[in-house]
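The records we work with from here on pair a chain with its fold. Taken together, the tokens spell out the fold as the letters spell out the chain. The record below shows the convention in full.
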Amino acid sequence: MLVRDAFKEIIEQETDIIEQLIECGYQKQAVITDIEQLTAVVEQERELLINLEQAEQERCQLFDVIASGQSPAQWLAATDDQELVLKINQLKTKYEQLQELNQLNQQLLAESLAFVQYSLNLLVDDLPLTYSKPGTRTVKKSIIDRKV
């Protein structure tokens, strides 16, 4: 097998893994309120990330053999293998899609946590509902330790 063929194969493998990570991202959105299912999705995602890291290391090694001393942008501009350029562009597109999905999931998670904290504060009467005398401190009760 030629190095270029192995490079194409590893690019395809990385693209497949990223597609699976995108699917995990959508699954997380669907099960964000179910801890057991969310834990299962996160575990699956962790395994995929390990596989992606291994594929990325192999891709970097193959790239060093193919384009010794060149940056990826220089090499892409100089290569005449349009199939490989297409595969690399697909990988880039999927990676950008995964980044956007992860940002959205982080926002959803932050909103969920804010709602939970608000609900807990209502339950333990952490929010002052009336005015108090200036200079007096109210003792706050909280179930969650906010110290980091």
Remarks:
- Residues 128 and 134 are 13 Å apart (CA to CA).
- The longest helix spans residues 82-123.
- The domain at 3-123 is CATH 1.20.58 (Methane Monooxygenase Hydroxylase; Chain G, domain 1).
